[in-house]
Amino acid sequence: MKIKKCLNYLLDNVFYREKKNGYIHNRTTKLDLNEKISKTKTMFGLNMMKTWKLLPSTVPYLINRPSSSTAVATVKMEKPPSSNSKPRRRSSYGTSRKSILKKTFKQEQVTFTAPFSDEPHVAIIGGGISGLICAIFLDKRGIRSTVFDTGLHGLGGRLGTRIIDDEYDSLVFDHAAQFFTVNDSRFAEIVNVWLDKGLVREWKGTVGELKNGGEFLPFLPSPPRYIATRGMRFLADSLLSQTSLVNVERPCWISKLEPFNGMWHLSENGKPRGKFDAIVIAHNGKCANRLLMTSGLPLIAKQMKRLELSSIWALLAAFEETLPFLENTEVAFEGAFVRGIDSVSWMANNTKKLLASQSDGPHCWTFLSTAAYGKQNKVPQENIPTATATRVKEGMLEGVETALGLSKGSLPKPFYTKLQLWGAALPTNTPGVPCIFDPFGRAGICGDWLLGSNIEAAVLSGIALANHIADYIQSLGTDPGEFAVGLNHEFQPLEGHDIGQFPGLGSEEKITEAQVYELAK
Q1: Where is the stretch described as Disordered (predicted)?
Q2: Of 79, 326, 342, 390, which alpha carbon lies 20 to 30 A from 3's?
């Protein structure tokens, strides 16, 4: 009882208010506490300490937003960012959705009141096409940024290309994004620049629909289809070449976000990675959810958790000769959307697509599974069991054989194969908003899933968030409420093919006879 009385006296009488470093503090010589005394009493009752001496090391650091606002805006920080903290070991199978949701919704909102730095610096976590475009357009607005990406071989995310040059001759595979179309005028302007620089070109090869049994219907040549000249990763790695205010940290896995002294402090497994005026989350899936669940950004975390993603298997296979077709199939296609096969939704000949001048040599094919097959055979993508890999590989090759109308066992055996699971492949729902931005927490999200599931959507999202952040910084943050975007948008189902949306081509269900034609006999 004596200890309790002492604690109550301390809470009710000793503290005075002091404004410092852009935050409003309740201050003593040893402790920083929230002004809401009743809440603090509850949080730090006697059951949380055994002796009075433990009190200073037990009380956390609390940040308030100004009292003039009615929204909840406090966030707990047990201590300033430290390089000595050891990361908590996680299960190899990740954190359950229920666990993440529980932690996410318990968060309290962080609010920054400090002015921006004289030279604002933005952290972009994720080096896919959306994050890279965001960095480019921040650069255009005179704002520095650092892109953090986990890629070992290069930037790009789903702009992935695998090149094998060891004992084989130039095996090249686009193993995620296959091609793109253009529908928006803003994206068209960007693609024209890429064309002029030789980063992309029009894909003139035959692309169409392959039905179970070998029936192939080519698409009309319009709208144009575009590919990167040397593989999709080449496009991603080339985008930042003309920027002057963009730094890249790769490979780097940002594991923690901490607001402190008016800035966001980023760290990688306890190692400081810099402090920033604002942050951009340009990736998704379980890693993004883990990062956000204790960051002090509950509104952004809530929207990220609403995102639903498909899983897709990618099988890369190299054959000595081109694949056989039925005798009555007159077209050796370069790419095909596959229908009626459980295990395969897309197949493309990378050799013909990317190395058109190569008349002989191996033929490198990319086979992508259906979303249903990916879900049925989903495992931790970082540690795929051998039995699962064997089953999936055999199932997909059998699917290719059936799609081509070949007899069982007649598909040539590939001399090289590589299997990869895209555990967070493509979005299946969307809020239909170009970007998400929390002005109080100075944090935003960009990505294709906010508008669709293709490269165009990713680019438009990156542009939108970059300009929004630049406008907010230019406003000096005087009226942050006006800059809130997408924090409460409801999600809707997203239509499209299993490997994404292609404006102008239509979805798998909407391909009609007007979009395909029979070759002249």
Answers
A1: 72-97
A2: 79
Question: Which is nearest to 374 in space by CA: 314, 284, 417?
Answer: 314
Contact 247, 123 (CB under 8 A): no
What are the tens digits of pLDDT across the range 316-366?
999 998 888 755 455 679 999 999 999 999 999 999 999 877 767 799 999
Distances (CA, A) of 513 to 104, 142, 517: 48, 49, 7
Question: Rounded CA gap, 192 and 202, in Å?
Answer: 11
pLDDT in tens, 254-296: 999 999 999 999 999 999 999 999 999 999 999 999 999 989 9
In tens, the pLDDT along 360-390 reads 779 999 999 999 999 999 999 989 999 999 9
- 207-211/335-339 β-pairing: parallel
Least Cα distance to 211 among 329, 373, 314, 313 occurs for 329
In the structure encoding, which two tokens stand for residue 392, read together?
A: 């999936």
Rounded distance between C-alpha atoms, residue 58 and residue 47, angstroms: 12
Q: What is the mean pLDDT of residues 119-133?
A: 98
99 vs 511: CA distance, rounded Å: 41
Distance of CA 262 to the CA centre of its chain: 26
Q: What is the pLDDT of residue 93?
A: 30
Identify the structural domains of the chain with CATH numbers, from first to last.
1-59 (no CATH), 104-150+252-308+427-490 (3.50.50.60), 161-222+310-425+499-515 (3.90.660.10)
| Ordered DSSP codes for 188-199 | HHHHHHHHHHTS
Confidence (pLDDT) at 222: 84
- Residues 215, 360, 398, CA angle at the centre, nearest 5°? 40
**N- to C-terminal Cα separation, the chain:** 97
* One-letter amino acid of 434: P
Whether the CB-CB separation of 11 and 37 falls below 8 Å is answered with: yes
Banded model confidence at residue 18, pLDDT cuts 50, 70, 90: very low
Contacts of 63 (CB under 8 A, 6+ apart): 23, 25, 74, 75, 77, 110, 111, 259
> Could you tell me whether strands 443-445 and 429-430 are parallel, antiparallel, or unpaired per DSSP bridges?
unpaired
Q: Tell me the angle at which helices 97-105 and 298-306 cross, rounded to the nearest 10 degrees.
A: 150
Query: Rounded distance, CA 169 to CA 256, Å?
Result: 42
Decide the pairing of beta strands 207-211 and 215-218. antiparallel
Amino acid at 131: G
Q: What are phi and psi of 460, to 5 degrees?
A: -65, -35
Cα→Cα distances 405→45, 171, 331, 412, 520, Å? 72, 26, 14, 14, 22
With residue 139 as reference, give the H or E element that holds it. helix 129-140
Question: Where is mean pLDDT largest: 84-93, 96-105, 118-127, 512-521?
Answer: 118-127
Amino acid at 521: K
- pTM reported for the whole predicted model: 0.79
Q: Which long-range contacts (CB under 8 A, 24 or more apart) does 191-196 make?
A: 191/226, 194/235
CB 30 within 8 A of CB 55: no
